[in-house]
Amino acid sequence: MVSENPLPDVLKKIAGVLSEGNRFLMMTHEDPDVDGLGSMLALGKSLADMGKEVVLLIQKSLNPPLSLLTGAEEMFTLLKPDRVPDAERDFDAVLALDCAERERLGLCVSSWPVEGLTINIDHHETNTFFGRYNLVDANSSSTGELVYRLIGTGGFPMGDAVAENLFSAIQSDTGSFKYTNTTSSAMRIAADLLDRGVNPWQTYRRTMNGYGPLRLKLLAGALARVELHDEGRIGMMILPREMFEKSGACGSDCEGFVDYPRYIAGVELAVMIRERGENTYKFSLRSNQWANVAELASRFGGGGHARAAGFTGNGPLVTLKKNFLLEAGRLLNETSR
Ligand SMILES: [Mn+2]
Fold first, then answer.
1. How far is the CA of 33 from the centre of ligand 1 (A)?
2. Which residues neighbour 199 within 8 Å (Cβ) at sequence distance 6 or greater?
3. Does position 78 have pLDDT exceeding 90, yes or no?
4. How many whole angstroms separate alpha carbon 123 and alpha carbon 6?
5. Mean pLDDT rounded to a whole number for the chain
6. Which fold has domain 214-335?
7. Which of 78, 141, 164, 295 has its CA at 20 to 30 Å from residue 327's CA atom?
8. Taking the alpha carbons of 25, 29, 32, 35 in that order, is the dihedral positive or negative?
9. Given this model, what pLDDT does residue 337 score?
10. CA–centroid distance, residue 35 to ligand 1 (Å)
Protein backbone atom coordinates (compact mmCIF):
# COMPACT_ATOMS: atom_id res chain seq x y z
CA MET A 1 0.00 0.00 0.00
CA VAL A 2 1.37 3.42 -0.96
CA SER A 3 1.29 5.42 2.25
CA GLU A 4 2.10 9.00 1.23
CA ASN A 5 -0.88 10.94 2.42
CA PRO A 6 -1.68 14.63 1.77
CA LEU A 7 -4.93 14.87 3.72
CA PRO A 8 -4.49 12.80 6.86
CA ASP A 9 -7.09 14.47 9.09
CA VAL A 10 -10.10 14.36 6.83
CA LEU A 11 -9.10 10.90 5.60
CA LYS A 12 -9.09 9.64 9.19
CA LYS A 13 -12.41 11.29 9.99
CA ILE A 14 -14.15 9.83 6.95
CA ALA A 15 -12.56 6.41 7.49
CA GLY A 16 -13.92 6.57 11.05
CA VAL A 17 -17.45 7.37 9.84
CA LEU A 18 -17.33 4.49 7.36
CA SER A 19 -15.93 2.08 9.96
CA GLU A 20 -18.60 2.88 12.51
CA GLY A 21 -21.65 3.13 10.24
CA ASN A 22 -23.58 0.31 8.63
CA ARG A 23 -25.66 1.83 5.84
CA PHE A 24 -24.34 4.09 3.13
CA LEU A 25 -25.72 5.73 0.02
CA MET A 26 -23.34 6.74 -2.78
CA MET A 27 -23.78 8.79 -5.92
CA THR A 28 -21.71 10.54 -8.57
CA HIS A 29 -22.20 13.36 -11.09
CA GLU A 30 -24.79 13.07 -13.87
CA ASP A 31 -23.48 11.67 -17.16
CA PRO A 32 -21.12 9.63 -14.99
CA ASP A 33 -17.65 8.61 -16.13
CA VAL A 34 -15.29 5.76 -15.30
CA ASP A 35 -13.67 7.68 -12.43
CA GLY A 36 -16.97 8.46 -10.71
CA LEU A 37 -18.48 5.02 -11.24
CA GLY A 38 -15.26 3.11 -10.60
CA SER A 39 -14.75 5.02 -7.34
CA MET A 40 -18.30 4.27 -6.21
CA LEU A 41 -17.99 0.60 -7.14
CA ALA A 42 -14.60 0.26 -5.43
CA LEU A 43 -15.54 1.92 -2.16
CA GLY A 44 -18.99 0.29 -2.19
CA LYS A 45 -17.54 -3.19 -2.66
CA SER A 46 -14.87 -2.64 -0.02
CA LEU A 47 -17.53 -1.62 2.53
CA ALA A 48 -19.86 -4.44 1.43
CA ASP A 49 -17.00 -6.89 1.98
CA MET A 50 -17.02 -5.74 5.61
CA GLY A 51 -20.70 -6.67 5.85
CA LYS A 52 -22.06 -3.15 5.47
CA GLU A 53 -25.11 -2.25 3.42
CA VAL A 54 -24.28 0.02 0.51
CA VAL A 55 -26.65 1.49 -2.07
CA LEU A 56 -25.04 2.85 -5.25
CA LEU A 57 -27.46 5.23 -6.92
CA ILE A 58 -27.28 6.40 -10.53
CA GLN A 59 -29.70 8.51 -12.52
CA LYS A 60 -30.29 6.14 -15.41
CA SER A 61 -29.09 2.76 -16.58
CA LEU A 62 -25.59 2.51 -18.05
CA ASN A 63 -24.59 1.58 -21.58
CA PRO A 64 -21.40 -0.27 -22.52
CA PRO A 65 -18.60 0.28 -21.81
CA LEU A 66 -19.61 1.83 -18.45
CA SER A 67 -21.98 -1.05 -17.74
CA LEU A 68 -19.01 -3.42 -18.07
CA LEU A 69 -17.27 -2.12 -14.92
CA THR A 70 -17.09 -4.87 -12.33
CA GLY A 71 -20.23 -4.78 -10.20
CA ALA A 72 -22.06 -2.18 -12.32
CA GLU A 73 -25.11 -4.46 -12.65
CA GLU A 74 -25.78 -4.03 -8.94
CA MET A 75 -26.28 -0.29 -9.10
CA PHE A 76 -29.68 1.19 -8.45
CA THR A 77 -31.23 3.32 -11.15
CA LEU A 78 -33.23 6.31 -10.06
CA LEU A 79 -35.44 6.26 -13.14
CA LYS A 80 -36.67 2.73 -12.47
CA PRO A 81 -38.85 3.43 -9.43
CA ASP A 82 -39.32 -0.22 -8.52
CA ARG A 83 -35.61 -0.47 -7.84
CA VAL A 84 -35.12 2.81 -6.00
CA PRO A 85 -34.08 2.22 -2.41
CA ASP A 86 -36.43 3.58 0.20
CA ALA A 87 -35.67 7.30 0.42
CA GLU A 88 -36.76 7.30 4.04
CA ARG A 89 -34.20 4.71 4.95
CA ASP A 90 -31.72 5.84 7.54
CA PHE A 91 -28.30 6.04 5.98
CA ASP A 92 -25.36 6.60 8.29
CA ALA A 93 -23.78 8.77 5.61
CA VAL A 94 -24.46 9.84 2.03
CA LEU A 95 -21.42 10.13 -0.24
CA ALA A 96 -20.84 12.01 -3.48
CA LEU A 97 -17.87 10.87 -5.54
CA ASP A 98 -16.14 12.83 -8.31
CA CYS A 99 -18.80 15.55 -8.18
CA ALA A 100 -17.69 19.21 -8.05
CA GLU A 101 -20.96 20.66 -6.80
CA ARG A 102 -24.28 19.55 -5.38
CA GLU A 103 -26.23 20.53 -8.50
CA ARG A 104 -24.07 18.25 -10.65
CA LEU A 105 -25.68 15.26 -8.91
CA GLY A 106 -28.56 15.73 -11.34
CA LEU A 107 -31.75 13.94 -10.28
CA CYS A 108 -29.83 12.09 -7.54
CA VAL A 109 -29.71 15.39 -5.66
CA SER A 110 -33.19 14.55 -4.32
CA SER A 111 -31.52 11.84 -2.21
CA TRP A 112 -28.81 14.21 -0.90
CA PRO A 113 -29.87 15.16 2.63
CA VAL A 114 -30.00 18.86 3.53
CA GLU A 115 -28.96 18.01 7.04
CA GLY A 116 -27.40 14.72 7.98
CA LEU A 117 -23.97 13.33 7.40
CA THR A 118 -22.71 13.99 3.90
CA ILE A 119 -19.27 13.18 2.50
CA ASN A 120 -17.84 14.80 -0.62
CA ILE A 121 -14.86 13.01 -2.21
CA ASP A 122 -13.53 14.76 -5.28
CA HIS A 123 -10.53 16.17 -7.16
CA HIS A 124 -12.07 19.01 -9.22
CA GLU A 125 -10.43 22.36 -8.54
CA THR A 126 -13.87 24.01 -8.74
CA ASN A 127 -15.31 21.84 -5.94
CA THR A 128 -17.65 23.83 -3.69
CA PHE A 129 -17.08 21.78 -0.48
CA PHE A 130 -20.78 20.97 -0.29
CA GLY A 131 -20.44 18.05 2.12
CA ARG A 132 -20.11 18.03 5.88
CA TYR A 133 -16.83 16.21 5.34
CA ASN A 134 -14.88 17.15 2.23
CA LEU A 135 -12.06 14.98 0.98
CA VAL A 136 -11.18 17.32 -1.87
CA ASP A 137 -7.75 17.49 -3.47
CA ALA A 138 -7.19 19.04 -6.89
CA ASN A 139 -3.68 17.58 -6.91
CA SER A 140 -5.06 14.05 -7.01
CA SER A 141 -5.19 12.55 -10.48
CA SER A 142 -8.63 11.14 -9.91
CA THR A 143 -11.28 10.41 -7.33
CA GLY A 144 -10.08 6.82 -7.56
CA GLU A 145 -6.75 7.92 -6.11
CA LEU A 146 -8.53 9.51 -3.12
CA VAL A 147 -10.65 6.40 -2.59
CA TYR A 148 -7.47 4.30 -2.66
CA ARG A 149 -6.04 6.48 0.12
CA LEU A 150 -9.29 6.28 2.08
CA ILE A 151 -9.36 2.48 1.86
CA GLY A 152 -5.72 2.42 2.99
CA THR A 153 -6.36 4.81 5.87
CA GLY A 154 -9.28 2.75 7.15
CA GLY A 155 -7.53 -0.56 6.56
CA PHE A 156 -10.58 -1.61 4.51
CA PRO A 157 -10.47 -4.71 2.33
CA MET A 158 -9.11 -4.41 -1.21
CA GLY A 159 -10.20 -7.49 -3.15
CA ASP A 160 -9.87 -7.97 -6.89
CA ALA A 161 -13.00 -6.02 -7.85
CA VAL A 162 -11.97 -3.08 -5.66
CA ALA A 163 -8.44 -2.95 -7.10
CA GLU A 164 -9.74 -3.27 -10.68
CA ASN A 165 -12.24 -0.45 -10.33
CA LEU A 166 -9.68 1.83 -8.69
CA PHE A 167 -7.22 1.13 -11.48
CA SER A 168 -9.89 1.78 -14.12
CA ALA A 169 -10.73 5.10 -12.46
CA ILE A 170 -7.09 6.27 -12.43
CA GLN A 171 -6.34 4.87 -15.88
CA SER A 172 -9.36 6.62 -17.35
CA ASP A 173 -8.93 10.05 -15.72
CA THR A 174 -5.22 10.21 -16.62
CA GLY A 175 -5.90 9.19 -20.23
CA SER A 176 -3.96 5.99 -19.60
CA PHE A 177 -1.21 7.83 -17.73
CA LYS A 178 -0.52 10.56 -20.26
CA TYR A 179 -2.40 13.70 -19.17
CA THR A 180 -0.79 16.36 -16.95
CA ASN A 181 -2.50 14.89 -13.87
CA THR A 182 -0.29 11.79 -14.23
CA THR A 183 1.71 12.33 -11.05
CA SER A 184 4.31 10.04 -9.56
CA SER A 185 1.89 9.23 -6.74
CA ALA A 186 -0.80 8.22 -9.26
CA MET A 187 1.73 5.89 -10.85
CA ARG A 188 2.87 4.49 -7.49
CA ILE A 189 -0.73 3.71 -6.62
CA ALA A 190 -1.24 2.17 -10.06
CA ALA A 191 1.89 0.08 -9.53
CA ASP A 192 0.55 -1.18 -6.20
CA LEU A 193 -2.73 -2.11 -7.93
CA LEU A 194 -0.78 -4.04 -10.58
CA ASP A 195 1.03 -5.86 -7.77
CA ARG A 196 -2.39 -6.84 -6.51
CA GLY A 197 -3.13 -8.56 -9.79
CA VAL A 198 -4.82 -5.93 -11.95
CA ASN A 199 -4.31 -6.46 -15.68
CA PRO A 200 -4.09 -3.00 -17.33
CA TRP A 201 -4.91 -4.22 -20.84
CA GLN A 202 -8.04 -5.98 -19.58
CA THR A 203 -9.25 -2.93 -17.67
CA TYR A 204 -8.51 -0.72 -20.68
CA ARG A 205 -10.38 -3.00 -23.05
CA ARG A 206 -13.31 -3.10 -20.67
CA THR A 207 -13.62 0.66 -20.32
CA MET A 208 -12.55 1.86 -23.76
CA ASN A 209 -13.09 -0.96 -26.22
CA GLY A 210 -16.52 -2.00 -25.09
CA TYR A 211 -18.22 0.29 -27.58
CA GLY A 212 -20.44 -0.95 -30.38
CA PRO A 213 -19.88 -0.27 -34.11
CA LEU A 214 -22.38 2.61 -34.05
CA ARG A 215 -19.75 4.67 -32.22
CA LEU A 216 -17.64 4.58 -35.37
CA LYS A 217 -20.56 5.79 -37.50
CA LEU A 218 -21.06 8.66 -35.09
CA LEU A 219 -17.33 9.44 -35.09
CA ALA A 220 -17.21 9.50 -38.89
CA GLY A 221 -19.99 12.09 -38.93
CA ALA A 222 -18.40 14.12 -36.16
CA LEU A 223 -14.93 14.18 -37.74
CA ALA A 224 -16.39 15.39 -41.03
CA ARG A 225 -17.68 18.45 -39.18
CA VAL A 226 -14.65 19.51 -37.16
CA GLU A 227 -14.17 23.29 -37.37
CA LEU A 228 -11.09 25.37 -36.65
CA HIS A 229 -11.47 28.87 -35.18
CA ASP A 230 -9.30 31.67 -33.87
CA GLU A 231 -6.51 31.14 -36.39
CA GLY A 232 -6.46 27.44 -35.70
CA ARG A 233 -6.07 27.72 -31.93
CA ILE A 234 -9.58 26.41 -31.24
CA GLY A 235 -10.76 23.04 -32.55
CA MET A 236 -14.52 22.54 -32.41
CA MET A 237 -16.66 19.46 -32.86
CA ILE A 238 -20.44 19.78 -32.93
CA LEU A 239 -22.77 16.85 -32.32
CA PRO A 240 -26.40 17.71 -33.07
CA ARG A 241 -29.10 15.31 -31.96
CA GLU A 242 -29.86 14.32 -35.55
CA MET A 243 -26.32 12.93 -35.81
CA PHE A 244 -27.09 10.50 -32.98
CA GLU A 245 -30.46 9.65 -34.50
CA LYS A 246 -28.98 9.03 -37.96
CA SER A 247 -26.16 6.84 -36.68
CA GLY A 248 -28.25 5.06 -34.05
CA ALA A 249 -25.50 5.78 -31.49
CA CYS A 250 -26.28 6.63 -27.88
CA GLY A 251 -25.08 9.56 -25.78
CA SER A 252 -22.15 7.77 -24.17
CA ASP A 253 -20.79 6.80 -27.60
CA CYS A 254 -19.19 10.23 -28.01
CA GLU A 255 -17.04 9.81 -24.88
CA GLY A 256 -13.49 10.92 -25.70
CA PHE A 257 -14.31 12.45 -29.11
CA VAL A 258 -13.09 15.85 -27.90
CA ASP A 259 -9.56 14.45 -28.11
CA TYR A 260 -9.70 14.46 -31.94
CA PRO A 261 -9.77 18.24 -32.47
CA ARG A 262 -7.38 18.49 -29.52
CA TYR A 263 -4.61 16.69 -31.34
CA ILE A 264 -4.54 18.94 -34.41
CA ALA A 265 -1.23 20.85 -34.58
CA GLY A 266 -1.69 24.45 -33.47
CA VAL A 267 -4.87 23.77 -31.46
CA GLU A 268 -4.64 24.89 -27.84
CA LEU A 269 -8.28 24.57 -26.91
CA ALA A 270 -10.65 21.84 -28.06
CA VAL A 271 -14.39 21.91 -27.55
CA MET A 272 -17.08 19.36 -28.21
CA ILE A 273 -20.62 20.72 -28.27
CA ARG A 274 -23.32 18.13 -27.87
CA GLU A 275 -27.03 18.88 -28.23
CA ARG A 276 -28.79 17.46 -25.19
CA GLY A 277 -32.29 18.77 -25.72
CA GLU A 278 -34.28 21.70 -27.08
CA ASN A 279 -31.83 24.63 -26.87
CA THR A 280 -29.62 22.74 -24.41
CA TYR A 281 -26.00 22.07 -25.27
CA LYS A 282 -23.23 20.38 -23.30
CA PHE A 283 -19.79 21.91 -23.87
CA SER A 284 -16.77 19.70 -23.12
CA LEU A 285 -13.47 21.61 -23.05
CA ARG A 286 -9.86 20.45 -23.22
CA SER A 287 -6.63 22.40 -23.44
CA ASN A 288 -3.12 21.33 -24.33
CA GLN A 289 -0.56 23.69 -22.82
CA TRP A 290 -1.63 26.77 -20.97
CA ALA A 291 -5.31 27.71 -21.24
CA ASN A 292 -7.22 27.13 -18.01
CA VAL A 293 -10.50 25.65 -19.25
CA ALA A 294 -11.89 25.30 -15.71
CA GLU A 295 -11.78 29.08 -15.51
CA LEU A 296 -13.33 29.43 -18.96
CA ALA A 297 -16.10 26.96 -18.05
CA SER A 298 -16.80 28.83 -14.82
CA ARG A 299 -17.55 31.98 -16.86
CA PHE A 300 -20.48 29.96 -18.24
CA GLY A 301 -21.56 28.43 -14.92
CA GLY A 302 -19.57 25.20 -15.28
CA GLY A 303 -16.28 23.93 -13.92
CA GLY A 304 -13.74 21.15 -13.90
CA HIS A 305 -9.97 20.91 -14.16
CA ALA A 306 -7.37 23.19 -15.77
CA ARG A 307 -7.04 20.87 -18.79
CA ALA A 308 -10.53 19.33 -18.84
CA ALA A 309 -13.77 21.08 -17.97
CA GLY A 310 -17.33 21.59 -19.13
CA PHE A 311 -20.59 23.47 -18.85
CA THR A 312 -24.16 23.39 -20.12
CA GLY A 313 -25.41 26.23 -22.32
CA ASN A 314 -29.06 27.11 -22.85
CA GLY A 315 -30.21 28.97 -25.95
CA PRO A 316 -29.83 28.77 -29.72
CA LEU A 317 -26.58 27.18 -30.88
CA VAL A 318 -25.48 30.17 -33.00
CA THR A 319 -25.61 32.48 -30.00
CA LEU A 320 -23.94 30.00 -27.63
CA LYS A 321 -21.21 29.32 -30.15
CA LYS A 322 -20.59 33.03 -30.77
CA ASN A 323 -20.40 33.84 -27.05
CA PHE A 324 -18.16 30.90 -26.39
CA LEU A 325 -15.71 31.77 -29.18
CA LEU A 326 -15.58 35.34 -27.95
CA GLU A 327 -14.69 34.33 -24.37
CA ALA A 328 -12.35 31.55 -25.48
CA GLY A 329 -10.51 33.87 -27.86
CA ARG A 330 -10.21 36.44 -25.09
CA LEU A 331 -8.79 33.84 -22.70
CA LEU A 332 -6.27 32.65 -25.29
CA ASN A 333 -5.16 36.24 -25.98
CA GLU A 334 -4.88 37.10 -22.28
CA THR A 335 -2.89 34.03 -21.35
CA SER A 336 -1.08 33.09 -24.55
CA ARG A 337 2.62 32.43 -24.13
MN1 LIG B 1 -12.54 12.44 -12.01
1. 8
2. none
3. no
4. 13
5. 92
6. Diaminopimelate Epimerase; Chain A, domain 1 (3.10.310)
7. 141
8. negative
9. 66
10. 5
- pTM value is 0.87
How does strand 234-239 pair with strand 269-277?
parallel
Residue 336 neighbours by CB distance under 10 Å: 11
Collapsed DSSP state (helix, strand, coil) of residue 77: strand
In the chain, where the domains are located:
8-208, 214-335
8-208: CATH class: alpha beta
Q: Rounded CA gap, 114 and 100, in Å?
A: 17
User: Phi then psi for 176, rounded to 5 degrees?
Assistant: 55, 50
Q: Is the pLDDT of residue 195 over 80?
A: yes
Give the distance (Å) from ligand 1 centre to CA of residue 142. Answer: 5
Entry field: residues in the chain: 337
- Ligand 1 centre to CA of 255 (Å) is 14
Q: For the packed helices 143-154 and 160-173, what is the interaxial angle rounded to 10 degrees?
A: 150
pLDDT of residue 4: 54
Q: Determine the distance separating the centroid of ligand 1 and the alpha carbon of 231, expressed in angstroms.
A: 31
Strand-pair category, 76-77 with 53-58: parallel
The pLDDT value recorded for residue 86 is 59
User: How far away, in angstroms, is 249 Cα from ligand 1 center?
Assistant: 24
Q: What is the mean pLDDT of residues 171-186?
A: 95
Instruction: Give 165 Cα–ligand 1 centroid separation in angstroms.
Output: 13
